[in-house]
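User: Show me sequence and structure for the first protein, then do the same for the second.

Assistant: Starting with the first protein.
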Amino acid sequence: MKKSLSLLLALLLCVLALPAGAEEAEPIVITVGMGVNSSEKYAPGESFDNNAWTKLYEERLGIKLDFVLTADSQYSQKLALTIASGDMPDMWRTDKANFALALEGDMLMDLTDLAEEYLSDQAKEELEPFDASFRAATVGGRLMAIPYTGEAAYGASYTFIRHDWLEALGLEEPTNQQEMVDAMIAFATQDPDGNGVDDTYGLALVRELWGAQYGLEGFFNAYHAYPNIWYEDEEGNLVYGTVQAEPMKAALADLQKLYAAGAIDPEFIVKDSAKVGESVASLKSGAFYGMWWNMSSAICQSFMNDPEKVPDRWWCLSPLSSDSQPAMLQSTGAIPSTFYVVNKNCEHPEKLFEMINLWFEMMSVDVSPEDYATYVVNEEYTPQNYPFVSQIWGKSVRPEQIRGLQDGTLALEDCTSEVQSIWANIQSFESGDYSSSVYFDHYWNHAQLPHHSGYVAEETDAAGAIVNDLNFGPTTETEAARGSTLDQLRDEIIVQIITGEQPVDAFDEFIENWYALGGEDIVREKNEWYATVK
């Protein structure tokens, strides 16, 4: 008995003699690579490698991140050089080109079984709708990366129109593309702002012709033309939308008509998006095409600078068609440009999935107001941009909850913190409080009301009115060698046709040249690749 007591006392003394904290496990160090946004703002004392999220990783997951590979705008180039050296971190973010390089170098861990084992039920549920994104990360039937995820409807190009100009001219809301074209011509020729000066245009257009702001994708889609993307034909083969003659020429004919009527600024060929945005903000443009968030840019700026504070100058319209067939909008939103990958020699690959799980926990559930301000967004900073794992999207802004609040079927306390914050801002705007651009942004982007961009995007998604870009594979050999030349030829002929320098039928010659100068080989290469993944 005495011997047992003596042993127990000796063990107790040993425990008491341990240094403070020795009983706690040391954090696991994970080396990572990621691009750094030098313009990102942090609270005093914080930085990209020391902030609320890095501390959360250590406290909740036992992970200490070591940022061994970082750069701002040169990250892709630095990553390519590092891949060539073979000295890679445990995990890193990568673009599509460097993803292919790492695969070719046999550097990456197969994540298929790990994802099934370590992703939480919540994360799996949130990621389930993003099949197209995960197809881009799958090679030979195996998941080799976790993609940035995106919703197709939020990567489409929508129609934005001056509602106040329609009213001023006694015009109804366009219900088809012909009425839309007529409205744009009226905006340029009938003095919609009533100042007696010929200073308005019907369609704002950027010199690059394409893109998220003031591009032509949405215009072409009204004619069932899908330029610059690859999609399946009736036989299941990939076709390139730019060289489908009939729908492309139908759209070009109306663009030429708009230009001839003075509805397109003749200086569009020298104006970038910033310059075009000035025209929109100064209330001199009647319509444009762009992604759903465009209510947050020049339109919001014009409202905040407008002494009259007209809250509904601009409307977002549901997709319009040039004929009796429903319009479909093309989208690259589901095709990721960035991936998370794991070194095949990493000792703790499960930590990537733990970070993903934590992301969804903090972003997509009803976190406390304190945690929301600390890890998501607050009045000064945007902490959701800080973590190594970000841009893995579920629907943090849940439109079904906004609709429930609007129709009274859902209580505020049953909504996520993100929705509660947005709802407060929507209500502020509806009550006439125009003091913050955030109120305008949240009202026009997230209120589930007709002519609001988020509502139109959700309705488009529900209708299945999306044509996804299926070009999620590697750049082909001929595409790498000839693609930029073919793109230049495309833009040159489109500008020439719009301005009347060339007839619409000149597009047929462009198509012939496109095939002859490498397009035929690109189509063959794309379909050879697609046959291995579909």
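Switching to the second protein now.
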Amino acid sequence: MRCLSKVTISPNEMQGDCGNQVIGNQSSGNQYTNYRLLVTDNRQPIIRPLQMAKVLLSKSVLIIVILLLTFSNAFAQNNTLNLKKPLALKECIQIALENSSMLTIAKRDVVASELEVKDVRAGYLPRLDVTANYKVNDTYHKIEWTSNHYDAKLSLVETFYDNGKTPARIEQAKARLASAQLDFQKIQNELTLEVINGYYTLLKAQEMLKVKEEGLKQSQTHLNLAKARYDAGVAPKSDILKAEVEVGNSELDLIEAENTVSIALTNLNNIMGIDLNTPLLIVDIEEPPMIPWDTKRETLSPVDKNSGSMIPPKSETQNPKSKIEPIDMTIDECLDYALANRPEIKKAEISLQIDEIELGLARKEVYPGITLEGNYNINVSKLIDKNDWEESSGWEIGIKISFPIFDAGKDKRGVTKAKLNLANTKTKANQLAKDITLEVKKAYLTLKSQEMMIATSKRQMIQAQESFDAAKGRYKEGVAPITEIIDAQASFNSAKAALIKAIYDYNVAIFTLKKAIGGQMI
């Protein structure tokens, strides 16, 4: 058995009790603090104060690591995607914005532009410089600390006027910052529309899958009916064969629909920046899809995606309009709004401003320049040697005028290049306005087309439903061949699929037009 004991002894009492071994001591005046290990066997002592400290330190580090891992796991769990909870459209957009690498790069560009503004503004502030050197030569070749070897200076310099270059560069840096912010907004809008498109594509694919599943059930019902009629002797065997072919076709349609859902899900996962194999769940449209305004009321009317029937609109107090809806605007209003609010248009205007400033700076290099500067210098080495502040320091203010005489035409070429860049920017801005005009017209016409497709698909589905019901009754009564019911079912399923497609495509068209005119996406 071993135990550690602490005793205080005098210098003459360097021996401990019988059988005890002194393993360390610390001097304190004329006494010594000794750490003794009581040994009851012949083994060497293994516990020392330093070793104990190391053990305690290692345990503390281990505890800290465990706590950090615990908190990090808890944080990761809190931020893990909840696969049991269906995600709404806004949640999918938020996840995509958080995971987008392009958006991260755009944020960094904004921060870099902010730093550039601060750097240029620093031109208004004084500069404090310290210079020092130590040297030896053939005259003073000994290494010694004298004024013959070292020299140190402290200078404070302020530029009061630089021919207007600093204010111009500040305006240019501010414009670049605004341009970077517009780039961020543009990428955000494009990603948002991409998520919306992928979201509605998945919803559409899921609804189409339900239609195909229902079609397969109907085909199997027809097959059973054909077999029953054949067994009863009132239908030929060819009806069974035709019904079996119908079942096979329905199974193929179902396989294709399932594959479409898988592709749409994978695509949405990719857009959101999550694992492609994530079994994502999404909720259907939070509010009923919007269809064209009623010509009598001139207001938007929701439509049910299953029946296609109109839903009475909410009152203005229940559903106030807090933002501009592009569907309430004419084509000319959409164009005017786009040319005034699209981030790309605003960026083009800022690019023109930047190039104009750059042209002005280039011209300043051609003409004579005037600079007003002041500085205050302190010869530190002289101050140390002579201890005389007045002799070791001094200030000066001066005006510098520079006349460019010959630079092989470099400055003039710089002006020419600045003019060319400005002209190119103007040409690009004009072309951009044309492209945006075309984009808005396409989006607007697509939206109007989807409006008409909803109305047409609704009528077709109602007619196909009536024809399908009539065909089923006629076949049961034995007055119609099975091909009539098969054709009627195909027409009904096709009409129902067309209505579903038209409704979801209409919603995408609304957001596409919003993005085209530079409106608020969500």
